[in-house]
User: What shape does this take?
Amino acid sequence: MNSLHRNTDSVGYMTDARSEEQSSPLGDESFGRLRHLADDTSIRVLVGDASRMASQLIAGQLRSCRNPRLETILPASFASKAIADEIINTRPDVALISGSLQDSSFAGYAVLRTIQSLNLATRPILLLENCEHDLVIDAFRSGARGVFSRAESSERLSKCIHSVHKGQIWAGTREMEYILGELVSTRPLRIVDSHGYSLLSKREEEVVALVADGLTNRQISEQLKLSEHTVKNYLFKIFEKLGISTRVELVLYALSQNHRGGLAIDASVYSNKQNGNQGRYRRQQER
Assistant: This one.
């Protein structure tokens, strides 16, 4: 098994694929052709490590993946500005960015903030040598959709990229504990006002539930029969009311409300499975 650094046991927060044994109204041959087309769909991934050699090594490992098929892009150079410019110009589906780049040890965070400030569709993953508490928290605050340790295998990296591309957040059990601890200690969620009334309207709670299900703004707008602009306005109001700033915090809010009976979210879609020293947060996604 190839690895980015060394192969160790790991924990991931990812999506389970829907069962492949579901019946289809199409014939077997037609269904097979559709499956073939789906498998051939590629994900465009920009790889920005601290050097060209390191980036080429990761890109080579990713290109060997067949399902999903990953198409890699390398920037002209490996400083933060060059990587940010390449993302802006090429608009990859996913950007794998090292926390440490040519210009400084934490330059990758500047790239994350650039993507976040421009509201680009590219979903960034931060590649870290060590997933320490402050590094993980700052990554998600800067707009990362996932954090990935170099200690993980290349096979896990391809799963991480696939999950983030589908709209998931990728973080291990330890990283999720960091996020939960940060929320509890620094920014308690304001669920009700001083009179005990719910801060969210019924429609806002519907939006929260759909975000927790992993839907994009476009998918939410289609399901609720709203414009995408209206969905963005709802999210802005929700963030303001709850005192949060990211979708990660919103998902955590939705989970906490589910345990309190506040939001109608199926608890079965989130589970924590343990297998020896390995565990995985799983969420089944209806598509």
About this structure: The first helix runs from residue 28 to 40. Residues 5-39, 259-287 have pLDDT under 50 and may be disordered. The chain has two domains: 36-180, 189-284.
